[in-house]
Structure formats: structure tokens, C-alpha cells
Amino acid sequence: LDCTVAQIKKLIGKYPVLWIDAVGLKEESVIRELGELLKLHPLSLEDMSNIPQRPKIEGYPNHLFAVAHTTTYKKSLAISQVSFFAGEGFVVSWRERTNDCFDFLRKRLEVKGGTTRSSGEDYLLYALMDAVIDTYFPALESFGDKLDDLDDRVEAGHSGDIVKDIHATRHEIRLLRRIVWPLRDAVDGLMRKHDWLIGEEAIIHFRDCHDHVVQVLDALESYRDACSDVRDHYATAVSNRMNETMRFLTIISTIFIPLGFLAGLYGMNFNPEASKLNMPELNWPWGYPIALGLMGTIALGQVYYFWRRGWLGGNGEKPKNASPQQMKPPNK
Amino acid sequence: LDCTVAQIKKLIGKYPVLWIDAVGLKEESVIRELGELLKLHPLSLEDMSNIPQRPKIEGYPNHLFAVAHTTTYKKSLAISQVSFFAGEGFVVSWRERTNDCFDFLRKRLEVKGGTTRSSGEDYLLYALMDAVIDTYFPALESFGDKLDDLDDRVEAGHSGDIVKDIHATRHEIRLLRRIVWPLRDAVDGLMRKHDWLIGEEAIIHFRDCHDHVVQVLDALESYRDACSDVRDHYATAVSNRMNETMRFLTIISTIFIPLGFLAGLYGMNFNPEASKLNMPELNWPWGYPIALGLMGTIALGQVYYFWRRGWLGGNGEKPKNASPQQMKPPNK
Amino acid sequence: LDCTVAQIKKLIGKYPVLWIDAVGLKEESVIRELGELLKLHPLSLEDMSNIPQRPKIEGYPNHLFAVAHTTTYKKSLAISQVSFFAGEGFVVSWRERTNDCFDFLRKRLEVKGGTTRSSGEDYLLYALMDAVIDTYFPALESFGDKLDDLDDRVEAGHSGDIVKDIHATRHEIRLLRRIVWPLRDAVDGLMRKHDWLIGEEAIIHFRDCHDHVVQVLDALESYRDACSDVRDHYATAVSNRMNETMRFLTIISTIFIPLGFLAGLYGMNFNPEASKLNMPELNWPWGYPIALGLMGTIALGQVYYFWRRGWLGGNGEKPKNASPQQMKPPNK
Amino acid sequence: LDCTVAQIKKLIGKYPVLWIDAVGLKEESVIRELGELLKLHPLSLEDMSNIPQRPKIEGYPNHLFAVAHTTTYKKSLAISQVSFFAGEGFVVSWRERTNDCFDFLRKRLEVKGGTTRSSGEDYLLYALMDAVIDTYFPALESFGDKLDDLDDRVEAGHSGDIVKDIHATRHEIRLLRRIVWPLRDAVDGLMRKHDWLIGEEAIIHFRDCHDHVVQVLDALESYRDACSDVRDHYATAVSNRMNETMRFLTIISTIFIPLGFLAGLYGMNFNPEASKLNMPELNWPWGYPIALGLMGTIALGQVYYFWRRGWLGGNGEKPKNASPQQMKPPNK
Amino acid sequence: LDCTVAQIKKLIGKYPVLWIDAVGLKEESVIRELGELLKLHPLSLEDMSNIPQRPKIEGYPNHLFAVAHTTTYKKSLAISQVSFFAGEGFVVSWRERTNDCFDFLRKRLEVKGGTTRSSGEDYLLYALMDAVIDTYFPALESFGDKLDDLDDRVEAGHSGDIVKDIHATRHEIRLLRRIVWPLRDAVDGLMRKHDWLIGEEAIIHFRDCHDHVVQVLDALESYRDACSDVRDHYATAVSNRMNETMRFLTIISTIFIPLGFLAGLYGMNFNPEASKLNMPELNWPWGYPIALGLMGTIALGQVYYFWRRGWLGGNGEKPKNASPQQMKPPNK
């Protein structure tokens, strides 16, 4: 299928439907020549060359013109444009870049006597469009995988680049949505307008095509929601971890700061010899054990208080305390 | 009703309406044979086999084709697809998996002379669709229960897996919504298009069907809102608990840190003998009691300050302080 | 108006329009008998009995069938269903529970020669519907009161059950919205379809009815927004109070921790006799006053720093400092 | 123009179009008499009297009935209702309260031979409606001013009543939106329905009117967004200030707490005479300078650490440190 | 093209289509004269003069009137209005301010024999509209650049004016959206209404125009989402940094506060000579080393605890600890 415009000229008329599959948008002369040969409207040729275009299906006096996008997903989403011209006796597909999205269709066409081969321009256009739409499903799958992975990472407490990754995924979902959403309207419009090129039977096929597009949109919509969920999940995890940090600080600080004060108290240098009122405790025989006991009592009292409020359960130190009755909210 | 395609062939024509209830999508030959026997469109058969499909009702030249989903709810939402083919003299329902959603209908059919039995294909199709829609209500109920349970757990101060459970519920609500939403459009379309198969009386019945679907959607919408409410509630609870922790830390720290400083002050080793200016307090007869009194005054002052700002009320220590006048905002 | 079906049978035909006002849905035999007498469609009778139904107005061959809901508001929103059947010469209203929503209408009817009495079925139906819609306004009022009350409580710094109360109010707004929203569509549909029962003059009346419903929806919409505002207000209040707590902790801590360090420094026991480098300050005649002065300077420096940043203003201690120039943002 | 109904009766027919401008809704008898004189529909009179009504334009057999609202903005938004009745040879405008919104129009009418004077009822109605719509623009302007002012206050770090003021502004925007939104639909409906009263030329004028309403709605929409922006801005400012407070606390605490520990360490009273292992540092000739040096090293190390993380830059103390290379995120 | 109205008068009729390109709205007499000459509707002239107007395309009896806006982007978005009048034999474009948006078109027109020159009023109008729409793309590009820049700054940890810049960008996106959104409706309306002035061929061109507008709107929509993403990103970054600060404070505080307490404990002045129970440790030969060892053990124990919880990893001090197994969430 590597041939010049002149060769194509000879082929026209030989077959009931001619499929011309062109790749690359740089050779303007070829575009112009082919456009003249098949009487394609200049505006449609311009739209084909100016990338990126919104997906659309437009009727011109002589032919139908459709723009769609194929996607490939290797690490990130790559989008490349395909334009279709379908007229009496020919269908032209013009791809921005080489990719394998039509390989499966070509194989089916090479089988002699198959339905695909014997059908008209409308069926071929449908088959090509469907092949384009089929390239969206791997991208959808990879979105699903990514979101599951993100959810697992949030769950596992990683914090590194989660926000960045969530945004990247959201961005790609949005990107795909932007090329699928107008395609739905385009296919819908095609089915309603009853263009002369599209036969009654082909409408049923395009309805199938429309179904696939809507399915892709549904999935995108739900991935978008899932994205928000992951983000919420992450925000809650961050806030919970902060809470936990605070609680740990509070427990340690509130236990030791009063004890430290007590220790400081008995480190004061008031002269016991100046009067009997000046720190007589220092000379008591049981002074030190009593002081230690006092400290221990305060510490234990606070631990008990924290334990009753269920603050210790979250620290993983005393998991046996995490029984329901300690989880009761304190202000009840 | 366990029979081969050949047996079905014989049955056609014997009864005004034949209901064929098939289960399982793996035996392709059976699907093909039955499709040929009843002249079902290949695209509709393909849609039936390729799971999952969006719910839809499509008119083909010979028959109506409908896709819907039954749900069962045991711990989590399980969705399985049912396809319907309704043509002159027959209704085929083809389920992905065995379930009991048509059992009730079968019983009604077995009753001789009932309305269900004597009606046409349209009424049978309605009855089957209605049976499918009825499977959504138990799922709705379980959503309601789950949300009530989540609300109770947030209320009770549990924190474990609430976020995860909320997301799981949201996910299931979304899942169910995705199969009910297009069904509404499908039923709505059926009522408007006035297909030849659907009689005037059946339209009234499908209107009933449409009502049920809309009711399910209404409930889903309101569960979705309730989900957001639970999440907000949880976020507020987390933030309130953090606030409380902070306040506790602040109270203890700000009381004891100044006291600790005072204690440290009188623990300094300046030599009182070097001059009279060096810590004469240490040798005062009342030095120690005065220092203690000073500390007590500071502590009480702060406690009074906290009490006036209503910070103590939230700690559950002095609930009698939680009277309205202390609740006055401090910056007023 | 307490009578049996047999009595009703006799009354038919005697009056141009007969209003039958039934209450309670349990006596199935009565429902069936009346249905047969007035030739009501079985599906409409079923819809009447199966509670809850979505509000709707449906045309059946013999009669109009309408479902609406009356509300009463005593502490919380109570909804009860009313069904209407309007046909040639009769209007049936069938309430789920006894309430006083038709009392006002009955009084107007008892006045001989009033417009209400001499009009047709359509006017009576309008009057009944309008009486139902009028029951929504007290609920609206109570929503407004509740929201004002919540706003005041947030303002006053209460924290108790505000979130819970906001959610309860949101829930009730949603509940009411769910029964009013479809009613709007129903009334709208009735006005457009030009049913044979509804005369030209009655359409103008139903337009009035429609206006009322839309007004209720408008109010609900704005209460819903107000709900979100109260929630935001509360969240900001919580976050502000936390900020304030933190600031208080920071002020006290950062003043006294350095002072405490200084006190600790001169509490060290290095032996001044071992060398002249070891804490000669302890033996300086002015050692203690200098140390105190140093501490005072540090404390005052910090207080000045906080005062310049406007942190003290928020504590209510020195309101005179809250002048605009101190409010300048620190990072400017 | 201060006259009784009887006087009006005489005026009818004298002029091609009579403009009756009434104010106040309390004198029911006047309303009734005028209604009878001009054959106004009772429902429209009722709608005029029952305040508040939604804006609308309704066609009655004899006349057009329109409800709109004028606004005045002095500190807060005041809304008052105006009703219009336009029929063959007369236009009645009935205001709830006196205001000056028609003064400009009256002046134009008093100019003999102007276009306004010689046109029909439809043009007069348009001119009145346009005068009403013109009252919205000052309100819009004041919203813009308020939002700018709020933004400045957030910027300047004020915290007082910002949330309250934002909510108040949002509330007023919502209020205005509620009276303008239905007005758009009403005017739109009027243009489409081609009422007998509205001539071809007047439609072009009402299109202008419609344009103005849409412009008001556009502005409201964008103010609503701006409101959300101010709120976000405020929330970020609060959160940034909290961050800053925390950082200040952290810096001071983490510098002085370890130092305080060291000071405490050498304040311990272990008896150096009991063994050589007991605090020999105390008797070292260089003990004190070494301890001070150690403290200084720790403090400087921490300051360096904070400086490298860019924490000091935010405090305004060392702005020269805020160079880009210190701003590098720590976890990179 | 700098000429008076009188000169224009002479030119009319000489050429099949006359393009009058006027700039500036202040000379009212010129506007009035030209309006009379070309029979332009007064309302359209008024709309042209009153700035700002919403974009629109309106049909008047004699001519089409269109309002659009050109944008220039130098640091910030500048919008200026262009009005078009297209009638039999003439197209008037009237700009608010001088700008170069029509320069490209003028050059194409000067080329003799080009398509642009020989086409009718409709094509010229299309070419002018398209030139206006082309001015939006540089603005879009600069939005994209700004958002990328903001994202980089958030990533790099800058905090200065990010919120302000995000809001400024959002504001400009909104501004542009407000002038493009109605333009889409206007162009769409033009294509549907099939005005007498617009030929079949021109419709195809306006469809192209419509495509461009929709493309701009799509891009704006996605920039708006990107704006929200940047804001979320920033909020998360702020919250993460706060978390980190808190964690640092917690680590330092909880390590040194207990140690400080221990040091204070042995700084107490209980008299060992009063009894054997009073601080015998002070006289133990190994007292000091044991105390130091105890402190070291506590410190190491806490460091190990923090290390196990993965708190140290985030500080960049011990990156080798950030292995997955330490990242396990503590409450599992």
C-alpha cells in the first residue's frame, strides 16, 4: 500500500470501495493532489493538517469528513490524530503517526470473502472508527491499574509523590475525556442526520460504535471520581498522621513537663538553715522517696487519663487497650 | 425448562408467547443456533455475549433487544447481566449467571389463568424488566444500613477504617448508578418511540417501570449526598479531636513551663556571699513559702484564664464550667 | 363524610362534582370496591397503596391520577402521601394519615355559593393540590429558623452538636426537595399536555400552583447554600480557635523556654574554684541582677516581637494593640 | 399623578396609552376597583398583593402581567417588588414602596414629541422593565467593591469578621440572583411566545432587555466565583499563619530544649568526690567554657539546619536568606 | 482607509463588497452619520457604543450585527470590543481600540485575485470573526505557561504569592471564558437560523469558526481544572510541610524533655546526709556514668521508635531508612 497519487488514480473505479491509508502530514503536495483527485473540500484538508483538532464528523457536499484520535499508552498517554474522508467509492484514513491500530482490520480485509470486504464505504468507515475507539480501552485499563496502585500506596503510608501522581493521572483522564466527549456527539450527530452515505444497516453499526464511546466515557467518569476518592483518602491519611504525631508529643510533654517542674522545685537553693520554712523536705529522711513517689503518681495518673481517652491505642504500644469501651468519645 | 434448541423449535407456534429463559454465555453454538432460529440480529447476539454492556433497549428490524443488570447484595454488590430479546411470539431472557430473580415471576406464570399468563410479549417483557429492577432495592437498603452504621461509628469516635469504608460504599453506589442511569434513558426511550411491539396498555406498565427506576436513582442520589455528609462529619470529628489534643497540650505546657522556669531560677548557683545582690531570697526566712505561693498564684491565674475561655469544658474534667457564659467567643 | 362505598354509589350523579376524601390505606377491600365503582386503573390503585411513591401526575384513559405529599413540621419533618383521582364528576383524595391540610378548603366549600363550590373537577383538583403545597411553607420557615439558630451558635463559639444539627437540617432539606422537585415536573407536564379534564381557565390556576412549587424549590436551593455556608463558617471557627490555641502555646513556650535555659545555665555546678574560667559570674557581685536583667530583656524582646506581629491582639489581653498598623502581614 | 380610580376612569380613551404608576399594596379597595375597571384577572391581582413573588411574565386573556423587583443598595441590598399590567391602551406599574427608579423615564416622557411618548404599550412596558433592570447595576458595583475590599483585608492579615462578611456578600449575591434568574426566563419566554400585545419592533427592544439581564447574571456568576476565591484565599492565609506560628515554636523549642537539657546535666549533684567517674567535668579548668561552646555549637548547628531548610526566611528575620537555593524542598 | 463619511458614500456601489474598518467610539457624529448612510438600526449602534457588551450576533431587518472581543496578552489579559455590521454590499468592523488583529487579513485582501477578495459579505464577515477568534490563542498559551510555572513553584516549595497568582490566573481564565462562551452560542445560532445574508458555502466556513471557539472553550475548561489542581497541590504541600515541622518538633521535644527531667532529678538538693534514702545515687562511684547511660538508652530507644515509624525518613537525615518495610503504617 505504499504508492503515489498517480497509482491511486488508476485504482479508482477498479474496486467498489477503495481504502487509502495514509500516514504523515508533512508532504503538502501529496495532500493537495489527493484532495483534488477525490474532490475533497479544502477546509477539511486544512482541518486534517492543522493538529490538534477536536473530534468531529462533518458532512461536505461530496464526502464525509471525520476527525478522531488514537491513543497508545506506554508509561504515559500519547494521542495522535486520524482523519477520515469517506465518499462515493473511497475511504481515506490519514494518520498523524504510524501505529498499529488498523493492523487487525487489515488482516480481516485480507481474508477473501469476509463480510468486512464485501460491504460498502459506510461499513468500512464504521470498522475504521471502531478500530480507533478500541485503542482507548488499554488506556482505560492502565488508569484503573494506576489508581489501584495509588490507593495501595496511600494505604501503605507512602507520601512521596502521591499528590503529583494523582494529578498526572487526573490530567491524563481529562486529556482522554477531551477527545472522547466530542466524538460521542459526533457519532450521535451522524446517526441522527441520516447522511446519504450512511445506509440503514450501517446506522445499526454506528449505534454499536456510539455504545462503545459512551462506555469509555462512563469509565472515565468513574475514574475521575475514583481520583477524587484517592485524593481524599490521602488528605485524611495525612491529617490522621498529623493527629497521631500531635498526640504523641502531647503525651510525652504533658507527662514530663510537670515532673520536670517538680524536679526543678527540689533543685532550688533556698537555704534551709535560714529558717525552718525553707525547704524542710530536703532534710526529711524520707524526702527523696516521697518526691519520687509523687512523680510516679502523677505520671501514672496521666497515663491512666490518656488510656481512658483511648489516646494510647493509636500509638501501637498497648494494642490491648484498643477495646471498644475506651474508644468512647470523651465528651459523652 | 432445560431443553435443547431443537426442542424449542418444536415449541414455537404452539403457544401465543414463548418465554425462553437461558443462563450462561459460554456455549457459543447454542447462542448461534437460537439466534438463527429466532432471526436475532448478529450485533445483538454479540452485545449479549460481550460483558459488560451498558443497559439499553434497542429496536432491530425483527425484534427488541434489551440489556439490563441484576444485582445481589451479600457483603458487597455483585452485578450480573441479563439480555432480553422480544419478538413476534417469543421473549428470550439470557442471564450471565444463575440467580433467583425470576423465581417469583415463574410462580405467577404457573398459576393458570392469571393476567400475567394471558398477556402478550410486551407485558411479559415488562414483567421481566420489573423483576430485574426489583433486585436493586435490597442493595439500596444495604447502602442505607451501611451509611447509618458509618455515621454511628464516626459518632462513637472510631477511626480505624472509616475512610476506607466510606470510599467502598461510594464506589458501590457509583457502580449501581452506572447500571441504573442508562436504564432510565432506555426505558424512557422505549416509551417515547412507540415501537410496534409495545402496545398502548403496555406503555402504562412501562411507565410504572420507569417510575421504579427513577425512584432507585433518587435514592442513590440521596445516598451519595449522605456519603459526603458522613465524610464531612468524620473530617470535623478528626479536626475536633486534634483541637482538643492541642488544647490539652497547651494547658499543661503553659502552666508548667513558667513554673519550671521559676524553679530553675532559684536553682541558680549565684553566690549570695559575693554580694548582697546575689539571690538574697535564698536566705530569707520566708523565701521558700513565698516562692511556692508565687507559683501557686501563677498556676491558678492560668487555670482561671483557661476556665474563662471555656477551654476546660471540652476536657470533660469540669463539666460544670461548660455553662453558656463561658462559651462566649474570646474575641468579642 | 364518614361513609361506606355503598353510600358513595348513591351519591354519584347527584352532584356535578363529588369530592371523596379518604384516609388510611389498610382496608384493601374498600380500595378495590371504590376503584371498581369509579373505574380507576389498577396500576394507579397499586401506586396509591405502595408507599412511598414519587410525586407524579399521570393520565389514565378514564381519569387523572396524582401523587403528592403533605408535610408537617413538629421538631422534625414528617411526610405523608396523598393520592388524587380526578375523573368525570368526581375527585378522590386519599391520604395516608389524618392531618388538617384540607380543613381550610372544606370550610370554603361549606360556604354556599362560593366560587370553590360551583367550579368543576379541575378547579377542585387545583384547590386540593394547592392545599398540599401550602403545607410546605411552615417547613421552609422552620428551616430558616434552624439555620439562623445554627449560625448564632457557631458565632457564639458553641461546638457541641453543630455538625450533627447541620447534617440533620441538610437531610431534611434534601428530603423535602425530593418530594417537591418531581412535583414541579408533574405540574409542568400537566399544563403542557392539555388533558381533556383540565379546562383553559384551570390551566391558569395550575400555573399559579406551579409558581408556588418553584418558589418552594428556590427557597430550598437557597437554604441548601446557607447550610454549606454555616458549615464553612463552623470549619473556619474551629480552625481559628486552633490557631489561637497554637499561638497562645507558642507565646508562652517561646518566652519561657529560653529563660528556663538561662536559669538552668546558672544552676550548673561547675566548680569556680577549679579555674577562673568556670562560671565566674556566680561570684560577681552584680551576677544575679545581671542575669535577671538578661532574662527580662529577652522576655520583653519577645513580647515586643509578638506585639509587632499582632499575635497578642487575638488573645484579648491587649486589645489596644490591635490597631491597623500592627496587623500588617509579617512577610511584607 | 396623584389621583383616584374615578379620575382614571375619565382619562381612559383620552390618550392612546395611559401609564398608571401606583405605589403601595395596602389599600385593597383601590386594587379591586382598578382591577375591575381595567378587567385585570383576579389571580394576577392576587400575585401582585402577595409579596414576595417570583419574577414572571404571564399572558392573561385581556392583558400581560409581569412581576419584577427593583433593588436599592445602601449598606445592604433592599429588594422591592414591581408589578406591571399591560393591556389595550394602558400600562399599570404597581410598586411595593416608593423609590426613584422611574424618575428618569418620567422625565423623558415629559419631553413632548420624544420617541418614548409616541410609542405604544409594548414600548412603554419595555422602557419600564429596562428601568427596573437598570437598578441592578449599582448593586453589582457595590458587590465588586465589597469583594475588592475583602480581598485587601485578607491580604493585610485582618481576621476579624472576614468570614462573616464573605457570607453576607454571598447571601446578597444569591438574593439578587434569585430575582434576576427567573426574570431572564420570563423575558426570554415573552420574546418567543409572540404575544399579541408585543409588536415586531418591540421584540427587538425586549431582546436588548434580555441582553441586560444576561449581563447582570454573568456578572453575578463571576462575583460568586470571586467570593469563593476570597474564601479560599482567607483559608490559605489562616493556614499559612498557623504554619508560621508552628515553625516559630519549633525553632525556639528545638534550639533551647536540648540546651536546657545540657544545662540541667551539669546541674546534677553527683558527688565528684565519691569517685573519679562522677562528673569530673565540673572540676576541669576549662569545663565551663567547653560546656558553653558545646551549647553554642548545637544552637548554631540547628540554626544552620533551619536556614538550609528555608524556615528562617518566612520569619522576616533574615530576609537575605530567602534566596532560591535555600527554598529547595527538603525531601529532594 | 482614513476617510470621512462623505468619502465612503461615494465608494458605495463601486465595489461589490465594501469593508469599512473603523476604530474608536468617541466621535458620536461619525457613528450617527454612518449609521444613517448604511441604514443601521439605532439599537445596534447603541450596543456598539456602550461598552462592555456580551458577544452576540443579531439579525436586524437590514443587516447583521455582531459583537465580539479581541484579546491581547502582555503580562495580563486586555480585552477590547469589536462590532460588525454586515449588510448588502458592505461590512463594517468597528474597533474600540487600535490593534493589529486585522493586519493579516488586510494583507491577504491586498493580494489581487485571492479568494478572500472575490468572495461575498458573508465570507468577509467570517474572515473578520476568525481573525478575532485567532487573538484568543496567544492568551491560552500564556495561561498554559503560567500554570506550568505555578506548578513548578509549588513543587519547589516557594510560598510567597502563589495563592494570589493562582487567583489572578483563575480570574483571567474566567474573564476570557465570559467573552468566548456567548460567542459560541452566537455563532451556533447564526448557523442554525440560516439568515438571508449567509450563503450555503459560508455556513461551512462558520462551522469552522464554531470549531475554533469550541476548541478555545475546551482549553479554558481544562485550564480551569488545572488551576484547581495547582491549588490542591499547594494546599497539600503546605499541609505536608506543617506535618514535617510538627514531626521535627515532636522528635526533638520527646527526646530531650524526658532527658531534661532526669537531669533535673539528679539536680535536686535532697540532703543525702539526712538519711540513706535521700539520693544515695549521688554518692555511688558509678552514679554519673549510670545516669548518662540511662539517658543514652532512653534517647536511643526513642530514636529507634521514630525510625521504626518512618518519621526520620522524611527529614532527609537518614534517607537509607526510607526502605519500604519502615513505611508500613503504624496502626496495622
Descriptive report:
- 5 copies of one chain form a homopentamer.
- Chain A is of the alpha+beta class and 332 residues long.
- The first copy, chain A, has 2 domains: 5-236, Beta Polymerase, domain 2 (2-Layer Sandwich); 266-327, no CATH class.
- Helices cover 58% and strands 12% of the residues of chain A.
- The first copy, chain A, is built from 10 helices and 5 strands.
- The first copy, chain A, has helices at residues 5-11, 28-38, 42-49, 103-110, 115-118, 121-134, 136-155, 162-193, 200-265, 287-308, and strands at residues 18-23, 56-59, 63-74, 76-87, 90-95.
- Chain A has a 5-stranded mixed sheet with strand order 1-5-4-3-2.
- In chain A, strand 2 (56-59) and strand 3 form a beta hairpin.
- In chain A, helix 7 (136-155) runs antiparallel to helix 8 and helix 9 (200-265) packs antiparallel against helix 10 (287-308).
- Residues 314-332 of chain A have low confidence and may be disordered.
- Chains in contact: A-B, A-E, B-C, C-D, D-E.
List the helices and strands and how they pair.
The structure is a homopentamer of 332-residue chains.
Chain A: H1 5-11, E1 18-23, H2 28-38, H3 42-49, E2 56-59, E3 63-74, E4 76-87, E5 90-95, H4 103-110, H5 115-118, H6 121-134, H7 136-155, H8 162-193, H9 200-265, H10 287-308
